[in-house]
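worker-03 picked up job from queue 'complexes'. Input manifest follows; two sequence lines, order preserved.
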Amino acid sequence: MAAVIEFQHVTKIYHRVFSEEKLAALSDVSFETTAGQVCAFLGPNGAGKTTSINMLMGFFFPTSGQIRVFERPPGDLLAKKQIGFLPENFAFHKFLTAPKLLRFHLQLAGRNPNNAGSRIADLLAKVKLNGYENLKIGRYSRGMVQRIGIAQALLCDPQLIVLDEPTSGLDPAGRREVLQLLAQLKAEGKTIFLSSHILPEVEQIADHVIIINRGKMVRSGRLQDLLATGAQVEIVADRVPHELAQSALRGAIVEPTPQGVRVVVDTARKRETVEALWAAGSDVIAMTPLRSTLEELFLKEVDQPGGAQ
Amino acid sequence: MKVRAIALNTFSGLVRNKIIILFCAGCICILLLMLASLLTLRNLRGTQNAEMMQMAVLPLIASMMTFVSGFGSLLAAWSAADAVASEMRSGTVLAVLARPVRRWEFLLGKFLGVQLMMFVFVLLMLGLNYLLAWIGGATIETTPWVLIVYPLVRYMIYSALGILLVTVMHPIVAFCIVLVVMIAAGLVAPGNPETFMPQWLRTGLFYVLPSSNLLSETRFLTITRATLRAALWTDHATALAYGLDYALVCFLLAAWIFRSRSLSRD
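worker-03 finished. Artifact:
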């Protein structure tokens, strides 16, 4: 499958004016994203995510290496026609209203805004901004600005959607709506390249994960593979006799939860543990292979001392 | 359509720009003060020595028009610099250039948006010209195109210069440089008396700086001599072509610098 985004040994070094000082924002970063994939681009603050996205959009130029978007250089008009972009902390012309802003962006995309009334109304409804058509963007809350940003990113039905922190400034309900929207776009076969700090949400929709730290790529791969089933299972039972915890469950993690007692044991001991629980009169409610979360993986990769140096 | 959309959007932004509104309000206040003294002089004219008063009124009107015209040059330079810089500062440029818009199209849209505002300014200035001529008891007996086209071309030069400078520096620094350029261009103009500058510097600056005297409508028309001085159409064509050429060179340089500039939020 053809790569939609391709980074090949990309390095970006910032030079301070009138000084010898150099800062490597990205060092030899290579990855690719294929069509229909939801790619999460993760990293702590200052890792180089926004620099990468700005280079992908043609706003910055790499010091070395090559970037291709739809097999074209970044900033190419034909490539940009297929991209919907939401920058971090999106800013708009504050004197415009939402429909006027979307019409302006349609004109920038070379489309006729006069026939787009229903498209604009649909989009505003999709991002829950219907009813605010006459309010100027300067009077919007942070969350509303983020919503109109998402609407403009989706305006021209792009094949690739690049989102830099799409849920920043949104309340939990707003974040859930954005997540649902992204899931819907994923189902439509769109390619989504997103950067976010809210990892549990990313975990729900991402297929592919790229983690960068201090300008270097530290982990990349399919989310499923990165969060591969561990060597432990989690068993939830309705009650566990105290004696059992002292004998048969010795060495296991046993902790009460609202759903019952949670027992974490090595996979090799799962059968023995379940039989012991049944024998003691406990009812096993659930048994699931324990896998690490994206947050655990991220923290492990980012916190490694010197790992990303 | 893209350039037109950017130009109209720029125009809408400029007429709402608080600094520009403040700038214009200051100009109007100074103009009203001058107008008050003008009206006082005009009222005295009937009772005192009429000829002497007329001699005082007409230069005052001429200085008012010079002030308004000079203010237009500053307005053009600041508007152009701010139109580009504010997009960079706020980050709206990222949303615009994420669309299939070339960087030079963005700059051209900004430039045309500023010209649209300056066209409105020139029309207001034209109205003021006629009003002041009427107050001063003079009549402008000429076609108004000189009063529209000449200042517009002059403002094109200053706005293109503003755009060129702001692609590499802060808008306030860019504006200050344009201001210095305006003053220096006036000092080295051929009609001006000798200045402290050595001749070689004067000549060099005359060739490099925009010759705003050449593009001044006062070459052909002043309020004290309110008929169009006879000029061949080739004179007009040469002067206007010079101005347009200067503006084009500045704009092309700006587009060339801007094409390789990193677009980050300043």
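worker-03 released lock.
Chain B has a mean pLDDT of 81.
DSSP finds nine helices and no strands in chain B.
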